[in-house]
Amino acid sequence: VSVLIKACNPILESFGNAKTVRNDNSSRFGKFMEVQFDDLGSLMGMRVTPFLLEKSRVIHCGSDERCYHSFYQLLAGGSPALLSSLRLKRAKDYPNLDRGGCLIIRAVDDAKEFQAVVQAMADIGMTEKERDAIWRVLASVLHLQSIEFQEHRVTSAAELTLEGRGACDFVASDLLGLQQPSILAECLVTNVTYVRQERIVKALNVQRAKDQRDSLCKHLYAKLFYWIVQRINEATMATTLSATSWIGLLDIFGFEDMTVNSFEQLC
Question: What is the pTM of this model?
């Protein structure tokens, strides 16, 4: 059990931690950990309840900071075959990763950290198919963040550039495996509402389309993060029969005042 619990740490740090100006490995989410014991006081398991993931960290960060470690680790440590299948390049080629002007952390090898994360995933029983799904979601966020919009010459509504449409089709079809790939492109440039069962589609301007793209990226990453925590709990949580007592540990990360603060920083 202790081996499984130790294996959780590099996974949680990869997907929930990031470099800030004050800490090279700052936790950007809060968590309540229930450490479980039997009636003899032996460690039986652990359950993690996460909250307040800093979703804004997925798409931007402050000067001399980084987004979540997971992105940099994948790009530095992924095999050539894996990166080729995901059509990924170098970290500096993605605007959200280079926004803080800090692609590497001194004395930290992202490639080695990636291998440690992969091993930890295997230790808790994650299958190769599950790990592949994780990399595809990370790649989806990076490709979506690279998509640009342009104004329609007549209506001024946002539309995908030629390169952006190609990236969108790849994300929808190959990475996310959507049954109707065209829906993704439509979701990025339009807003759909229902009034008395009537479907109303409103075209977005370029700025609103960028906001919609960013919201989708944050939602994708958050869903991935909470799924990973759930998967960790499946591996480490003791049964109700074996665990008779537990100790609760509350870990709340420190909110930081950034140049651009969103709801995750203020709530």
Answer: 0.90
